[in-house]
Write a structure and sequence with these properties.
alpha/beta; TIM Barrel; 8 strands; globular
């Protein structure tokens, strides 16, 4: 079991278009959690100052831009990012793309995105894939880990298979988390979901959660409840 503090297990997704609003959420929550995700929406709205200000408060940042381009371009993008206080960065791609990112990362951890949690088996068929979601996750994960990635982004449903196949010496970060305290919460565009407790039991190291916290009437209480779920899962 990795020595990850409980207040870093939840990565709160700052899915906001206003940088000021995003930073207000950081100030509201970082007494309880110390890890935040900056995705495309917020990064394009606030650029580097958003990442800098989150990190300057003593928090970790997952920069979720899903780099996917020719290897040289990805290498230069990671070079821009690696000294900006980010902890994680996400990437798509084949072996040359991933290896280019890994060469530039320094202390930045590179996470390979496998299959988005908004996809299910019917989406696989529509895109022409004949394998199951889990099969595709395992194939992409194998290539990513062999190419030097520090971890994998997958749904919590594939975490068990990933641990069984590849062991414990890599990170699994799982979106698609829905709190156990409210099983009727809307899935929105997520299709492959589980509770935080089940994700941890399945083998996840971190859970990415956005709307179940941001739309809660008491976000701090929701975080506390999810952390209790995670603690139970760790046992």
């Amino acid at each position: 079991m990795k020595n990850i503090p409980l207040n870093e297990r939840i990565i709160f997704a700052l899915d906001f278009s206003d940088p000021k609003e995003a930073l207000q959420w950081v100030a509201k929550l970082d007494r309880k959690i110390k890890f935040f995700k900056v995705g495309l929406q917020l990064f394009l709205a606030g650029w580097w100052p958003v990442i800098d200000q989150i990190a300057d408060r003593g928090n970790k940042v997952m920069v979720d831009l899903k780099f996917f381009d020719i290897p040289e371009t990805v290498k230069l993008a990671v070079r821009q990012l690696k000294d900006r206080g980010a902890a994680f960065a996400t990437i798509h791609g084949n072996k040359p793309i991933i290896e280019a990112a890994v060469k530039e990362k320094n202390d930045l951890k590179i996470l390979a995105v496998t299959v988005l949690t908004s996809f299910d088996e019917s989406d696989m068929r529509e895109m022409g894939f004949t394998k199951s979601v889990e099969d595709l996750v395992l194939i992409r994960s194998r290539k990513a880990l062999q190419s030097g990635c520090d971890g994998i982004v997958s749904s919590p449903l594939e975490a068990v298979a990933l641990r069984n196949e590849f062991g414990s010496k890599f990170l699994i970060v799982t979106p698609g988390i829905r709190p156990g305290l409210n099983r009727d919460v809307e899935k929105n565009d997520q299709k492959r979901t589980a509770t935080a407790k089940q994700a941890i039991i399945n083998g996840a190291d971190h859970v990415v959660i956005g709307r179940p916290i941001s739309t809660s009437s008491d976000p701090v209480y929701t975080i506390q409840t999810i952390q209790e779920e995670i603690a139970e899962g760790l046992k």
